[in-house]
Amino acid sequence: MKTELFNDDYLDGLPDDPLLALSSVCQEFRKLDQKVSQNADFHEDYLSALVIFQSLAASRNFPLNTSAPPPASTAPENIKNIRNYFSQMESEITRQLNTIYLERESNKYIARFDADSVYVFPDDDFRRIQELINEMRDIISGSDSITPKHKRRLLERLERMQKELHKKTSDLDRFWGFIGEVGIAIGKFGKDIKPFVDRVRELTDIVSKAIRIKENLLGEYSPISLPDSIPTSDSDNKFAT
Question: What's the predicted TM-score (pTM) here?
Answer without folding.
Answer: 0.55
